[in-house]
Write a structure and sequence with these properties.
Elements (H helix, E strand, L loop, with lengths): L1 H25 L6 H8 L3 H7 L3 H11 L3 H8 L2 H5 L1 H18 L1 H12 L8 H27 L9 H21 L6 H18 L21
Helix pairs in contact: 1-2, 1-4, 1-8, 5-7, 7-9, 7-11, 8-10, 9-10
């Protein structure tokens, strides 16, 4: 029984390894389960033993790789209470460096960003990614709110907008870098990139719009 269980786990890992290779080469929607089975050296029946469909393979492949955002979220905690912006800096740098140094994470993010078409068969997976994105933005917002409460962002900062900007900044760097990873050393550049964003956030944080009657421009009378 132990040997059978071990063999089953090994087969599952081989299938996920194959998914990383084939999805990256062909794209998710253009890959069939038969191709995955062939690349893994197993039967198609073995694929269905472990996974309901291709979306299940894709989801398991993503779950197996540690997300840079997940790594950041796991580290969020008591450190943010003492110095929120310093904690935010450390978390963002750690996330980028995780991507830069972990080959599996790079592969999975390349597939997610550039090889995953939005088709019906992956609708459930897309919804899961949307939930993860919203959760990450909410965690960012929590730390930014701590920074605002600590007076690190001046008066009346728009915390939600700042969190969305930070999430977009981080996602943009990751999206661009996995497409052209040889253009620069992301692990080495991570502190500088994060400092650029945080410097702008400190100097010019987004402000909450004042509520009330909108200002009406005064008419100018021109002399003919």
């Amino acid at each position: 029984m132990r040997k059978t269980r071990t063999e089953a786990l090994e087969t599952r890992e081989r299938l996920l390894d194959a998914a990383e290779r084939v999805f990256r080469a062909r794209g998710v929607s253009r890959t069939s389960l038969a191709e995955l089975a062939r690349d893994a050296g197993v039967t198609r029946g073995a694929v269905y033993w472990h996974f309901k469909d291709k979306a299940g393979v894709f989801r398991a492949m993503c779950d197996r790789a540690t997300s840079p955002f997940a790594a950041m979220i796991e580290q969020a905690g008591a450190a943010a209470a003492a110095d929120p912006l310093a904690a935010l800096r450390d978390l963002c740098i750690a996330g980028l460096q995780r991507l830069a140094t972990d080959a599996r994470t790079q592969t999975v993010f390349t597939i997610i960003f550039h090889k995953c078409e939005r088709v019906d068969e992956l609708a459930g997976v897309a919804s899961g990614h949307e939930r993860d994105h919203n959760e990450c933005t909410a965690r960012f917002e929590g730390i930014v709110r701590q920074a605002a409460d600590a007076g690190q962002l001046g008066a009346q900062p728009d915390v939600q907008m700042a969190a969305r900007a930070l999430n977009a900044f981080m996602t943009g760097i990751m999206h661009e870098w996995v497409l052209h990873p040889r253009t620069y050393d992301l692990a080495a550049a991570a502190p500088m990139l994060v400092d650029v964003f945080l410097a702008g956030l400190r100097a010019h944080p987004p402000r909450c719009e004042r509520r009330g009657t909108p200002r009406v421009p005064r008419k100018t009378h021109l002399t003919p």
